[in-house]
Amino acid sequence: MEVHFNLLDGSNPFSIESIGYQWEQEMIMRADGYPYYHWLQTEKGLGEVTIENEKIRLRPSEGILIAPFVSHYYEAISANGWQTNFLTINGSFSPNIADILGAAPYYLANDCPDFSYSDWTRRMLSRIKNENQNSQQQQLSIDVYTFLLNIRDHGLHRTVHTNDLYQQYIWPSIQWIETNYVEKCDIADIAKRLYISPQYLNKLFRRFVGVSVYQYVLAYRIKKAKEILVTNRDIKIKDITFLIGFNDTSHFVATFKKETGFTPKEFRSFY
What residue stretches are annotated with the HTH araC/xylS-type domain (predicted)? Predict the structure, then answer.
């Protein structure tokens, strides 16, 4: 068993915040998710991850990459415990990982002939121990990028809902919101693009997503605010306000506290 924590290096596009191999995994519950992309793979035993009300079993060689601030819970379900390999990813380019992988709360992957994630983890640990710090960080950044490309090319993204109404109205709306959240996301404008009424779009959102369009937009903006607060510590709160689609800093701060229980400044201090 080998583990390294607090390896952050914000100067490179990608860095490893923590990494572990053959870790005796305890139960973890994260209602607010983790601030960085988090890879978890079964080395031995059997584990179960609960995410977005789905239960996903991870058998040996199977893994999951969870996006930042996605609520999740995982635990061993085999009698002899659960041994895992894990990785958390940060870096100056980490907010753009969704551009590489696509927007999804999680991605599934497993060791295959083209790429072994477990072997990769073992090699990274060896490199961290044995190489010069400066050259190590640059090479690690390249290696993490390779890891992500293999998730993209060989992994399985969350399956999009197959219902025709979801495909026709909800999925295009979500894609539009997550691309244009910085601008005014008015339900009337979104509904107009789909040639349906705002009332009907809201009804569909509540049916399939469980919240209204407004609540979805707000939750996504707060999620993006959390990412910026953690990964771009030099950006001022007043600037984050406009980066996520709010027009007034006081309103942003009050809304953030209402949704999370903390002010943006307090939230940033935790990380």
Answer: 171-270
